[in-house]
Amino acid sequence: MSDEITAPWWAAAREGRLLLQRCTECGHLQHYPRALCTSCGGGELGWRESAGFGVVDSFTEVHRAASPGMAVPYVVARVRLDEGPVLLTNLVGEGPWCCDQRVRVAWRDLPEDGRRLPVFESLPVDS
């Protein structure tokens, strides 16, 4: 749920923009939004828009639904953004998937309240 720390992130996500927090004291970029910098502990954090490109660090294909009615299979992955932060996310679209594969952000609508979650899809080989 949105709070004063995450509200700017959710607002940008509704618009299809992926924001990263940036520490104004040390320049560290981080995701998910937090009250303090995970590098220096500073409390002065701003926002920077991500280009939305990265690589798959690791992934697994899940064949057992986590809750009733959930579609399977689905792919859970760690994606390292070109800017550095790592997101735990889903890979969508056609595989096959592999580590070090280039991906780009896509968006999954959440049915409850108009929010969106970043997911990642494969980039064409020549991108």
Any idea what the CATH superfamily of the largest domain is called?
A: Nucleic acid-binding proteins
User: What Rg, in angstroms, do the CA atoms define?
Assistant: 15 Å
Distinct helical segment count? 1
Category by helix and strand content: mainly beta
Structure explained in plain terms:
With 127 residues, this protein is mainly beta. The protein contains one helix and eight strands. The protein has two domains: 1-49, no CATH class; 51-127, OB fold (Dihydrolipoamide Acetyltransferase, E2P), CATH 2.40.50. It has one helix spanning 7-14, and strands spanning 19-23, 29-30, 45-49, 53-62, 74-81, 86-92, 102-109, 116-122. The chain is globular and about 40 Å long. This is Zn-ribbon domain-containing OB-fold protein. Pfam families: OB_ChsH2_C (PF01796), zf-ChsH2 (PF12172). Residues 47-108 form the ChsH2 C-terminal OB-fold domain. InterPro entries: ChsH2_C (IPR002878), ChsH2_Znr (IPR022002), NA-bd_OB-fold (IPR012340), Thioester_dehydratase-like (IPR052513).
What are its keywords?
127 residues; mainly beta; 1 helix; 8 strands; 6% helix; 41% strand; globular; ChsH2_Znr; Zn-ribbon domain-containing OB-fold protein; ChsH2_C; NA-bd_OB-fold
Helix and strand topology:
Elements: H1 7-14, E1 19-23, E2 29-30, E3 45-49, E4 53-62, E5 74-81, E6 86-92, E7 102-109, E8 116-122
